[in-house]
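ZP: hey, is the calcium ion complex queued? I don't see it on the tracker
AM: it wasn't, my bad. submitting now with these inputs:
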Amino acid sequence: MIDDDSISNNSTARPFQDILHSFTSRRKILAGGMGVAATSFFGASVVAAEYNEKGANGNNKGKKQLVGFTPVPVAGGGGLTPRISPEYNYDVIIPWGDPIAPGSLETIGIGHDGMHFFPLGNSNDHGLLVINHEYGDNIVVLGKNTPSSLDDVRTSQYAHGVAVIELEKTNGSWNTVNTGGYARRIHVNTPVTFSGPVAGSALLENPAGNQPKGTVNNCANGYTPWGTYLTCEENFNGYFGSTGVWARTEAQRRYGFSAGSAYGWHLFDERFDLSNPDYVNEDKRFGWILEVDPLNPDSVPVKRTALGRFKHEGIAITEGLGGRIVGYMGDDERNDYIYKFVSEANWKSMRAKGKHPLDHGKLYVAKFNDNGTGNWLELTIDNPVLAAKFNDQAEVLIFARQASDFLGATPMDRPEWTTVAPNGLVYCTLTNNTARTTATAPNPQAPNPDGHIIRWLDSNHHVGLTFNWDIFVLASSTHGTEESFASPDGLWADPDGRLFIQTDGRQHDGLNDQLLVADIGTGEIKRLFESVFGAEVTGITATPDRRSLFFNLQHPSSETTVPRDATIVISRKDGGIVGS
Ligand code: FEO
Ligand code: CA
Ligand code: CA
């Protein structure tokens, strides 16, 4: 197992009431105007509460704050240079365009996003960083808005995808190294395979007979206890366009395909031309989660179709009852859904039998009820509602959005990252929804320009069909305070009960995008880092000892001191755990 403390926690074995207790006086929730739609408020973390009472050394009188650093103040924000808490240092590493390894001709992509650190030999100074390259505007990558040739298209395509990088810390700084030939690029023209219920479906075959290749718009990520990386294809529709006569299907409409494309790939690469009958099913080859084995540089990445096809933001993997693999996933579109996958059996016994845990299991979509309860609706062809609409399980998964529509899933305010906290609660960022016209209990602001964070406790150790939910924080309730933030996106709960929150979008109070840390027990939020003008903060991973934390600045303005997409690595000056 990799450094996944959330998987090993078993605290959801406690009764619901023991874990969650009412705290209706939370300023953030009340100030945010939940009003009478309010659900049962719950949430203080037993784990965090114990930390606060006992301190890190277990001494009851120690009282060490879980989130103890001096926050970056609101005043002075909005600049061209990053700001960080005075107890911390930061470095800028692996910018777009650098070699992926010393002397390599392969280069780091653009649009740094989700990532994960895989230690080599449990080292805290040496490991593989697998990182997503979500997207890059043509004007930045090519110096022009529209490609003029297939070469231009290939350059744009190469900037997208995933990089596997070997990193080592020497004399206090992290650098790329090559001790084992691990470094590689996976991009739009890298061969891939399909596995799971959709593999072999005629809906993945083109008359052209072309073999599956590539991954696009690799947004957030997940990772598995068997040591692999999961990269999530988000706005895949945007890479397709039409050069001729194209009759858009209802499914293509639901997934947002249109004749125009900001990238213009379809002008020179027929794979991405929706009007080309030889590539009629190429669009269905994207919108999946791709598994990459970083320790095996010759391995072919695999699209795990049991996880469904939608605009995958990310996936938070945890271990549910009986050792089943559970993955929580957001579909980032205004009024789209939150999903859950549950493997059919214990992941270790499945692997021992040669069955991949992400190929065999059930996909569910979330229905949030106004009374604070929720239901997971089964996305299988065994469901009579879906059997009446689809021919087989492959269709249900390929058209997961429409299947979810038929079941009455709850439209949410752009579900982005999910994370499983050590107390068993699942947190999910709902980044914003300017198109919302009707407030509902789980999405209580209409419109919702600043977003919120929702959380739930699944029944039966993550494998049940019901859950209880509440809202952790409405971003608008922080405006005008030192906790000010908006448009939460990246999210990570560490094993002590700190919730790292990253933002992507217009901030208030003069701030740039930022990295904040919340105490999930008290709800207190502190600003650890403020980004440079124009750059969202996204992607988060740490060394096993959590003394080095990596995150990304995506699309910074060129006038800033971080002029290109790059990774930031931070540490405490006193060598303590990052976030403390
Ligand atoms: Fe790629 Fe929804 O962020
Ligand atoms: Ca995001
Ligand atoms: Ca976002």
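AM: back. The two ends are 25 Å apart (CA to CA).
ZP: great, adding it to the tracker
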